[in-house]
């Protein structure tokens, strides 16, 4: 799959997943904490295993402090996953 997939296609998949979950409540351009949780449960093998870790993850990603994760902020999560998903969720990182 890597041999034939462009980075644009990979980014499109990320974007499709993001907007699928972001569109669940009335704020359709951003992920709420609950939407992020659902997304991770469905699409991430190293999901935060506690409420505290999820809160920390949201806090870490939420650059503009509006308690919503937009597509740019979500990009940081993808970067964390590319770097090492599990480490991104670990305490103290
Ligand atoms: Ca935000």
From TrEMBL:
One CC-aspect GO term: cytoplasm
MF terms in GO: calcium ion binding; calcium-dependent protein binding; transition metal ion binding
Record key words, sorted: Calcium, Metal-binding
EF-hand domain ranges (all copies): 49-84
One Pfam family it belongs to: S_100
Entry's Gene Ontology BP terms: endothelial cell migration
Name of the protein in its database record: EF-hand domain-containing protein
Lineage, uppermost ranks: Eukaryota, Metazoa, Chordata, Craniata, Vertebrata
